[in-house]
Amino acid sequence: MPKPVVVIVIDGLTPSMFEAADTPAIRFLAEHGEYRRAASVFPSLTPVCLASISTGSYPDVHQIPHLVWWHRGEQRIIEYGSSFGAIRAAGLARSLRDTIIDLNAKHLSRDAETIHEALESAGLTTAAINVTTYRGTHRHLPTIPGVPAVNGPKRFFFYSLYESDRTGAPMAIRNRALGSIDAYAASVGRWLVTRDGFDALVYYLPDYDYASHTHGPDSAHEALARSDAAISELMDAAGGQDAFLERYAVVLCSDHGQSLVENVARLDAGDDLVTASNRAAMVYTNTPRAVAEKLDDQPVAGIVVFEEDGRVVARRDGDEDEALLDEVPDGRARVAAALRNPNAGEVIVSAAPGWEFLDLAGRHHLGGGSHGSLELADSEVPMLTVGLGAPPASITGVKGVVARHFGVSVRRAA
Ligand SMILES: [Zn+2]
Known about the structure:
This protein has 414 residues and is an alpha+beta fold.
């Protein structure tokens, strides 16, 4: 039987930060694994990226388009959490339901198959801690009455709200800035490793991204030390670093990068609806070319993409050339998939370097870090595999690496 696998996702960790890390758990894994820089997807924002990691597909297949988007069927904005202000503006209860429940139950395409669905249909046991794309076949009741039940993997832990097993972990949401969510993950992870409770665990650590938004990219050293400590907890539970690798194969990656925000602006698309957050914006319009041309003189707009007669058009500052997409990682594939997502706007705008869009509530990260664009800094992630062969070139390859390790064939999207 192949070794069980731990997939560690440190949200927002840049390749440069990973490569310079001198923290013990990350260093140890790096010394024993194979490493490369890999590409994220577009928009390079967490709900989109985690859906791609989980389903092994680009957004045209999994259909999660952005952190904030227009639901054409329900004629309303879906807001997964650009900022607390944006969540309030979209309706607090509705946004929480969209983010926690409906992202998996309704928005994530049935044609996409999660890593949990793929492995559990082959008789394996999977576990997920705090990851936002968790869809599986096991029904889980909430720990708080009045919240709907959800379908997740057999071992399922989500911010203290869903817990398939009693682990004694502390509440997840106590003090975000001090890393309480990763501390919760570590406590649950320790419990799972101690019991040998899974064939594959998706171990998602979001606190680094939170700190990096505040302090700026490559500055959140304290937060990285805490992410590292959360990995060390798993190793300790296994009996130490060497014992951990004797027992487990590992993927360690992030979901997207980050870049420094030096300027902020609201995207103006006239009367057309804009959904903007961080460094990506979408415009829902009947006149994509006219909108793209109107954006030429807005400094916040970097590469602007839309489809015309079935072909992708890429435009920047009035220049129209698909070769613009060769300047950014995996540009052509990422843009085509973003535009062919049925939930995306007709025009997608990648922010210019150094710029960020205001969200629904006018919030931003000026002076801190942000991500979402096609640009290199947002789009490159560290990708390390230990005991699994060569690391994939894209976050969409993680699921396939794990499935192949177990000899499980993955369902092709319809
Ligand atoms: Zn972020």
